[in-house]
């Protein structure tokens, strides 16, 4: 909606002489896109994220430009270039949140496929490149894919529609993480030997119950099954096994898949059946991890042990 208003404003100011005063508002939207993009990212990263009064300061530049424009003072002519700095800062903050999110997910979830935000990270990177092109256009040589409309406006239009489409096709990406998950990504300074008892308990549980075969297994679910504090279990895996939770679970899944490929339950058992039974939901993830750990693709491994 905001992008549509900006497009309408640009076209009105360009083609209707009586609306030339609208130029006072041209940079207004640029100071809104950055905060909106950042808070959208936070909303996707944290499922329990809420806007608070302290967040209102992010709207301060927008509010100042808006009020001054209503009063007839065109601050855009003096400070309009600052919107580029604002956008770049918010894009960097958004990318940092996504990188931190991925680290937390690896320490609390056993699969990344359903809640992978790499698409948003790359969208932000591409938008940053587009923004740099627009900065060049603003200060050096004008680049307008559509007359009167900057490349950033076109990029934002594509980005917003892309995010909307992604949300319809993959609603599970909006699950996010909780604030309580964040500390679990940090390593403790405890001696790994102090975790030996819990590590033995964990390995025994995996061997007996094959909990790793659950594709949606989380750190919290495993901690509950072991009757162990979530923080303690996270420290055991990180410090004793020197792995994050996702890598630890996937290592057991690959080992189980290797065992099944060596000795199938049925003669006609397929690799796909083994993959799903081992706890994987993604063929690409399974093939990549299997080759990383064994040096062979699943089909090569199966062929080598079926002779």
Structure overview:
The chain has 307 residues and is mainly alpha-helical. It folds into 2 domains: 2-175, no CATH class; 185-304, Homeodomain-like (Arc Repressor Mutant, subunit A). Helix content is 62%, strand content 0%. The protein contains 14 helices and no strands. Helix 5 runs antiparallel to helix 6 and helix 11 (245-262) runs antiparallel to helix 12 (271-278). The longest helix is centred in the N-terminal third of the chain and has 27 residues, at 82-108. The chain is elongated, with a radius of gyration of 26 Å. The protein starts with a helix and ends with a helix. The mean pLDDT is 78.
The major β-sheet equals: none
| Number of helical segments with 4 or more residues | 14
Distance between the termini: 63 Å
The figure for the number of domains is 2
C-alpha Rg (nearest Å): 26 Å
Helix share bin: 55-70%
β-sheet strand percentage = under 5%
Per DSSP E runs of 2 or more residues, the count of β-strands stands at 0
**Helix/strand-derived class?**
mainly alpha
Order of secondary-structure elements: HHHHHHHHHHHHHH
Overall residue-averaged pLDDT value: 78
Please mark out the parts with pLDDT under 50 across 5 or more consecutive residues, or reply none. none
Shape: elongated
Q: What are the main properties of this structure?
A:
single chain; 307 residues; mainly alpha; Arc Repressor Mutant, subunit A; 62% helix; 0% strand; elongated
């Amino acid at each position: 909606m905001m992008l549509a208003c900006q497009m309408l404003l640009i076209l009105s100011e360009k083609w209707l002489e009586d609306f030339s005063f609208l130029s006072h508002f041209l940079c207004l939207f640029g100071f809104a896109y950055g905060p909106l993009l950042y808070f959208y990212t936070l909303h996707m990263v944290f499922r329990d994220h809420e806007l608070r009064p302290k967040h209102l300061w992010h709207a301060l530049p927008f509010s100042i430009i808006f009020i001054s424009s209503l009063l007839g003072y065109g601050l855009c002519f003096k400070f309009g270039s600052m919107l580029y700095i604002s956008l770049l800062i918010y894009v960097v903050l958004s990318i940092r949140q996504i990188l931190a999110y991925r680290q937390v997910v690896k320490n609390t979830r056993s699969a990344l496929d359903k809640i992978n935000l790499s698409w948003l990270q790359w969208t932000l990177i591409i938008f940053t490149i587009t923004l740099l092109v627009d900065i060049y256009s603003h200060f050096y040589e004008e680049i307008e894919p559509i007359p009167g409309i900057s490349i950033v406006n076109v990029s934002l239009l594509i980005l917003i529609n892309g995010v909307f489409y992604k949300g319809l096709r993959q609603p599970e990406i909006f699950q996010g993480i909780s604030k309580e998950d964040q500390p679990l990504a940090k390593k403790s300074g405890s001696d790994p030997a102090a975790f030996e008892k819990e590590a033995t308990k964990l390995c025994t549980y995996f061997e007996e119950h094959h909990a790793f075969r659950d594709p949606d297994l989380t750190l919290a679910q495993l901690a509950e099954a072991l009757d162990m504090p979530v923080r303690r279990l996270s420290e055991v895996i990180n410090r004793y096994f020197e792995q994050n939770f996702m890598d630890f679970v996937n290592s057991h899944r690959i080992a189980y898949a290797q065992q099944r490929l060596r000795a199938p339950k049925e003669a006609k058992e397929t690799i796909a059946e083994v993959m799903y039974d081992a706890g994987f939901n993604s063929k690409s993830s399974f093939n990549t991890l299997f080759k990383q750990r064994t040096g062979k693709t699943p089909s090569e491994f199966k062929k080598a042990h079926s002779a």
